Predict the structure.
Amino acid sequence: MQQRTNATPEAEDHFPQWLDRRLRDLGYDLGARGGGRTKFAADAGISASSVSRLLAGRGKYEAALLAKIAPVLRVELSELMVRAGIVTADAIGRATNPQPDGPRMTPQDAAAELGIQSETAVALFVSMVRTMQEQEAMHRQQEVRRMEP
């Protein structure tokens, strides 16, 4: 059973409010007689009492439960786990972009491996690789910031 951790306590505290807003944004009427909780429960294949516990911030956030509601909420499971305080956005980033053990291949090594030999071509290849690495790093940082509450 997956439960909340102290990894992101502020996310835990904000999750019920975020979930309430998200459900309302998706058109679920969460008023006393609106039927939105029951409809969301049916759409997600979970019990209405689970929905009530999630919205009240009570109990444990189980990964299996979050996996069921993520598609209905139209968010990735990883984002939902960050919002629920189970993992940090940084941990998700490390898991999705693991760093290899040991020394990494340099752009110069890659050029040599690919048979690129002219000094000008190697310099161009190295410049292109570094630019692409910088763009990827910026993209990952933007994704991590987007997932933070």
